């Protein structure tokens, strides 16, 4: 700043002292030493008072605002501090407006950095997930083209393996589209009465063969013929339960138990899917609903799946005005739960 509080105080106090001295000269019979005494007293007093007023009401605040502009110009917004509530009201308001603007910009910058990081990670994950089935199917097809198609014994085996990888690729693309539409808000939930008991036992029937392969018991805390109705999108909640129960079976050790419970909470019903599987380490619990995030990548790839199941579950549950919760102890099992509104007949 070209003019600070001290310089301006000197100018103003000099003017005041000159005015006082000029006024004093109009009075008769004033000794010469009195002129000097009045001049120094008025100058000194004026300088001290004006300097204090200017420093604390204006210049201190103006320096703070100037420093804020320097930080904004240098894109260093992390050290910005809110106003300390001293200074002239107009300058305080300006300071607060600039701070609010800079703080908002800092939040936007951090969000953009985070989104850029997620985008890079997402592109890397998608590329990797797409590459695996494409490379496998491509290998089988080229092997057939190179002459294996004439080998009747291996021809069908290679074709089946190529078809299996292409089916997995189609499943991955469909899941990606589902997640994309849900995040964009393009999918609307069609709420209707849904009988949870009927739906859960239907899923049990569908997965019975897979569960029997590893001697896993499927249980529910209600009978098949009970009626527990909730207000939900039947197709989407079916998808949620299939994902959760499938994961519970996949990650349970041989001879384990997968139990689905429906608990009455008054206006809502809580659905709990519990297993006695390998569990999830605490450091992974906050990230398991991210797209393509896998706790044990080697085991997850051996078991199969697109890595998008829990992400889809999270979006569907949130679209039902609820949240998905998880509790897990490594070596003992995991428990996923969410709530749905009860269906009340009109």
Q: Give the helix tally.
A: 8
Major sheet size, sense and barrel closure: 5 strands, mixed
Morphology:
elongated
Strand content: 5-15%
CATH class type of the largest domain = Alpha Beta
CATH topology grouping of the largest domain: Heat Shock Protein 90
Rg (C-alpha, Å): 37 Å
Report the end-to-end length measured between terminal Cα atoms.
73 Å
Strand order of the largest sheet: 2-4-5-7-6
Query: Structural class from helices and strands?
Result: alpha+beta
SSE diagram, text form:
Blueprint: H1 5-24, H2 32-73, H3 89-145, H4 152-184, E1 192-195, H5 196-213, E2 217-220, E3 229-232, H6 234-250, E4 257-264, E5 268-275, H7 297-303, H8 309-319, E6 325-329, E7 333-341
Parallel strand pairs: 2-4
Antiparallel strand pairs: 1-3, 4-5, 5-7, 6-7
Helix pairs in contact: 1-2, 2-3, 3-4, 4-8, 5-6, 6-8
Domain Histidine kinase: 125-344
Pfam family, one: HATPase_c
Keywords: Kinase, Membrane, Phosphoprotein, Transferase, Transmembrane, Transmembrane helix, Two-component regulatory system
Describe the 3D structure.
- The radius of gyration is 37 Å and the shape is elongated.
- Helix 1 (5-24) runs antiparallel to helix 2, helix 4 (152-184) packs parallel to helix 8 and helix 5 (196-213) runs parallel beside helix 6.
- It is α+β, with helices and mostly antiparallel strands and 346 residues long.
- The chain has 3 domains: 5-107, no CATH class; 119-184, Signal transduction histidine kinase, dimerisation/phosphotransfer (DHp) domain (Helix Hairpins, Orthogonal Bundle); 192-341, Histidine kinase-like ATPase, C-terminal domain (Heat Shock Protein 90, 2-Layer Sandwich), CATH 3.30.565.10.
- 18% of the residues are buried.
- A 5-stranded mixed β-sheet has the order 2-4-5-7-6, covered by helices on one side. Strands 1-3 form a two-stranded antiparallel sheet.
- It contains 8 helices and 7 strands.
- The longest helix has 57 residues, at 89-145.
